[in-house]
Write a structure and sequence with these properties.
- The protein folds into 3 domains: 64 residues, Arc Repressor Mutant, subunit A (Orthogonal Bundle), CATH 1.10.10.60; 47 residues, Arc Repressor Mutant, subunit A, CATH 1.10.10.60; 145 residues, no CATH class.
- It is elongated.
- The strands form 2 sheets. It has a 4-stranded antiparallel β-sheet with strand order 1-2-6-5, with no helix packed on it.
- Helix content is 42%, strand content 4%.
- The protein starts with 19 loop residues before the first helix and ends with a helix.
- The protein is built from 12 helices and 6 strands.
- The longest helix has 18 residues.
- It is mainly alpha-helical.
- The chain binds a DNA duplex (21 and 21 nucleotides) through α3 and α6.
- It is found in: Nucleus.
- It holds the Pfam family Myb_DNA-binding.
- This is SANT/Myb domain.
- InterPro entries: Homeodomain-like_sf, Myb_dom, Myb_TF_plants, SANT/Myb.
DNA sequence: AAACCTTGCAACCGCGAGTGC
DNA sequence: GGCACTCGCGGTTGCAAGGTT
């Protein structure tokens, strides 16, 4: 899997994939003399390549300490964590992963991790829950997945009300009111209550502990500041965050639930919530896929279909989704 | 089974930083 | 300070392989 030979450039230097013979020459030369000046290396090594190409080949492929093969879960987590702090500083990230090259990490990010985060409803640039139409879909899945998470007697109509309420702000003149406080809302949804300790902290229930920070969803999506200690909540209040505990003292009745900010973090809590209705183009939405994943992973089959069938009432936002 | 589409990734390109004269 | 040169980084390309229609 490589570029096809492009032929010689105007300087007569070869481009394209390296042959085994070229690799052998490069390895032999560097093992004997070190790379020294990359510019001078190809001439000394008998290679009809530019120094840049030699350097790239050595660093990304021929170096003896290169670790090939799939990235482990641990490596994956390290990359995600470092990327949230460093951004696209691939070489800096690579220094924390012995044997991995910046190019390899960059490719892995672009082909796997980026998509994975998108599917989780997380913006791969800011590492925060996405707050756009696409994220809405992830949120829809979360509502369903969250329901599945706790549902022994989950009421389908209630689920649909929640679903509708989340969607309605797009165009509904009469949104359904939700319980005013987050805690009450969780009760309303049948989710386990937050555990309050004697310091007025609330601990997220075990069911909602995630691989990805569950606290991400409780802060302002528009604030790009990484979460390091205190952060702002959705209403602009400072929220103290410490060891997965949230200081709830500043939460007030203006909190609504479900919130577009909270829900994305729930995606990965569900073992079935990973299937996303998001394709590679990021902006195309396939309602059939949504329907299928709902049917497969939730206990309210047909919810979407029923919803779509009732198009007369919801045509505007169905258009938005489609 | 052929055509088309998607995915994975090696390699290229352009640019900026660093260095020496 | 200005210039030339080298190196390293990040973004992008383009093709083979695999998957889907």
């Amino acid at each position: 899997m490589a570029r096809s030979p492009v032929g010689n450039d105007e300087g007569g230097l070869k481009k394209g994939p390296w042959t085994p013979e070229e690799d052998r020459k490069l390895i032999n030369y560097i093992q004997k003399h070190g790379h020294g000046s990359w510019r001078a290396l190809p001439r000394h090594a008998g290679l009809n390549r530019c120094g840049k190409s030699c350097r790239l080949r050595w660093i990304n492929y021929l170096r003896p300490d290169i670790k090939r093969g799939k990235f482990s879960d641990e490596e994956e987590q390290i990359i995600i964590n470092l990327h949230s702090v460093l951004g696209n500083k691939w070489s800096a990230i690579a220094t924390h992963l012995p044997g991995r090259t910046d190019n390899e990490i960059k490719n892995f990010w672009n082909t796997h991790l980026r998509k994975k985060l998108l599917q989780m409803g997380i913006d791969p640039v800011t590492h925060r829950p996405r707050n756009d139409h696409l994220n809405l879909l992830a949120t829809l899945q979360q509502l369903l997945a969250a329901a599945n998470l706790v549902s022994t007697n989950w009421d389908q109509e209630l689920a649909k009300i929640q679903l509708l309420n989340y969607l309605m702000p797009f165009n509904s003149p009469t949104p359904i009111n939700l319980p005013p406080t987050m805690e009450a809302s969780m009760n309303f949804l049948g989710l386990p209550s937050l555990i309050r300790d004697n310091h007025h902290h609330h601990q997220l229930p075990d069911q909602l502990h995630l691989n990805y920070s569950p606290l991400e969803g409780l802060v302002n999506c528009s604030d790009p500041t990484p979460i390091l200690g205190n952060s702002m909540d959705m209403n602009g209040h400072e929220v103290a965050i410490e060891n997965n505990k949230i200081d709830m003292r500043k939460f007030d009745d203006s909190y609504n639930f479900p919130s577009p900010n909270l829900l994305p973090a729930l995606v990965c809590a569900s073992p079935t919530g990973q299937a996303a209705a998001v394709n590679q183009m990021e902006n195309k939405i396939d309602p059939n896929e949504i329907s299928n994943s709902y049917s497969a992973s939730t206990n309210f089959n047909g919810c979407w279909d029923e919803f779509v069938d009732d198009e007369a009432d919801h045509s505007d936002w169905i258009d938005v989704l489609e």
